[in-house]
Amino acid sequence: MSVTTGERMVRVSPLRRLLVRPEMGAVAGSIVVWIFFAIVAGSSGFLSLRGTSSYLSVSAELAIQAVPVALLMIGGEFDLSVGSMVGATGMIIAILSAQYGWNIWAAMVAALIFAVLVGMLNGYLVIRTGLPSFIVTLGTAYILLGATTGITSIVTNGLTVVNAIDQAPGYSAAHAIFATALGGGQQFPIEILWALALVAVATWLLLGTSFGNWIFGVGGDAQAARNTGVPVTRVKILLFIGTAVSSCLLAIILDVSFTNADVLRGQGNEFYAIVAAVVGGVLLTGGYGSAIGALFGALAFGIVEEGIVFAGVNAEWYKAVIGLILLLAVLLNSYVRKLALEARR
Amino acid sequence: MHRLYKFIVPIVLSLLILSACAGGTGSTSSGGTSRNLKFYVVTHGPSSDPFWSVIKKGVDQGAKDMGVQAIYEAPPTFDMVAMSHLIDSAVAAHPDGLVVSIPDPSALGPSIKAAVTAGIPVISINAGADVAKSLGILVHIGQTEYQAGFAGGQKMGAAGVKHALCVNQQVGVATLEQRCKGFSDAMKQVGATVKEIGVNGGNPTQTQQTLEAALQHDPTIDGMLMLGPLGSLPAIKALQDLNKAGQIKLATFDLSSDVLQAIKAGQMLFAIDQQPYLQGYLPIVLLTLYKTNLNTIANDVLQTGPSFVTADNVAKVIQLTAQGTR
């Protein structure tokens, strides 16, 4: 290196620059699993429109939660309450609209307000207590699940599934916005567009605004960020509100398309969202990652989840395959990150 | 540039391992097919669950006997969203027939209708007897839950129980609620009362403690109906702990080795058996006959239960469970 060239001026090949993006592992992973299932199960419908629709809608539902969870994880925190939040907000909408005859839009606003409040509470508790968010949000997750089950049981006289949301006033407009199938029949539900829109907003936030810089800052080193004037508390609380609100969005989509709500709905999503984010290149320790990565993490997940159905593999193998892919993705990511550090030198 | 190869190595490796996975399992399920028919079975019960493993065994044996290929899919936990996606994918794989369980008709109905619209013959099993016909399903094979609960209530009422507990190990499943409703309606007819309590079926210790607390809270209770076999062993332990074994009549839905031993030992009055093996075996046979001979069943519901396992027939059933078919 000559004396006159600063280290930022070093020429890096475009290929390497592409390879060191955080989402690279997930993009490569998605392509690999897609090619794999196209070969193994292409003739049994995986490549058909209906097949494509089936894994895209699985991926979209996961991405709607995984992308805000990725933002939160980049900001250095976890949210294990996103699964229970789907059941809770879904049930709020169902009870208010189907049980008490509210307009479904009013019920959605109520659920949204609830989600914002719980998100604030999560963030506030984490900041004030200084406890790991892993534990705090696990607590709120159980409280949400238990309280939802209990209250639903009281209100509906022993039920845990509330049906007939499609009888509520305003349902047809809600169906058009949250549950339309863009293709023929049931194919290509509009949730795919919702997921893409969410990724676009999240990416703009991360890369195009100072709030995005703050997220990376608080995740990398909260104290250092605070010292440079970043409003750490506000950033983290907003991120927790983001995960809660996105879970509410998923609950709305599922409520409207299935016309019912189930207290158990969403259970387990909290870990799938983390897996998608990690496969997408988000560091568990915070400070690094991308929203597009989480989208591709979710895509790889959806392709595998539905791909093994087309491949005719019995479902008992599903978790083993997911675990394998998670491990491979993490290995790939850590390798790519090493490359990234070398590229900067 | 050699680093690029290093980058590709894990990808190639993952491909190899994945293909090993798919190849290994794919060959076992497609082995020995003489008829070129492929059926998908999508249920809400993972085959790791003892009850559903019997259904899976029925599916596998049916496929073997009929010379067809049957693929069993289920979400790893009770998850209607995941299950509806599994059905969508199974339909997209254009099989010759589809077997589904329908624990939540609102959530799964549209996906099942899509299968019927696509011209795929569909048979429902286990859950969904009341909606099968309206969805365009050929026949439902299973036990109507309310009637089964009702029959259980009559049997328990006849045994002289006055105040019973209905123990739900998986709060949130509509079919379990129907069982409990049928049970309490039958008990009401003989002037007995029923209280429902929820327990955590996945945790035996917790279940036992919950039951002990409930029994101590209300000492008039003289009967307990478990809505599934998971709670049976904890229930027996709870009764022994409280020195109430024998005073409180115990019965359960569905079989397990614990349940059968308890019936044999006289600790349990009866088990309501819906014969899951039939629910796995019969749909494969009927779909094969439909595809090859256009045979149909005239009934809307082919009842596989309730049948009862009591002290009279328990010895024989125990022999059969050893081979995994009861």
Description:
The complex is a heterodimer of chains A (345) and B (326). Chain A contains 14 helices and two strands, in the order ααααααβαααααβααα. Chain A has one domain (49-344). Chain A is globular and about 65 Å long. Chain A has 345 residues and is an all-alpha fold. In chain A, strands 1-2 form a two-stranded antiparallel ribbon. In chain A, helix 3 crosses helix 9 and helix 4 runs antiparallel to helix 5. Chain B has 326 residues and is α/β, with parallel strands linked by helices. Chain B folds into two domains: 31-143 and 275-304, Rossmann fold; 145-273, 3-Layer(aba) Sandwich (Rossmann fold). Chain B is 49% helix and 16% strand. Chain B has helices at 2-30, 50-66, 80-92, 105-117, 145-158, 174-189, 204-217, 232-241, 257-264, 276-293, 314-321; strands at residues 38-42, 69-73, 97-101, 122-125, 140-142, 163-168, 193-198, 223-226, 249-253, 270-273, 301-303, 307-309. In chain B, the strands form two sheets. Chain B has a six-stranded parallel beta sheet with strand order 2-1-3-4-5-11, with helices on both faces. In chain B, strands 7-6-8-9-10-12 form a six-stranded mixed beta sheet, with helices on both faces. In chain B, helix 9 (257-264) links the parallel strand 9 and strand 10 (270-273). In chain B, helix 3 runs parallel beside helix 4, helix 5 runs parallel beside helix 6 (174-189) and helix 7 (204-217) crosses helix 8 (232-241). The longest helix of chain B is centred in the first third of the chain and has 29 residues, at 2-30. The chains are: A mainly alpha (345), B alpha/beta (326). At the A-B interface, helix 2, helix 3, helix 11, helix 13 and helix 14 of A face helix 1, strand 2, helix 3 and helix 4 of B.
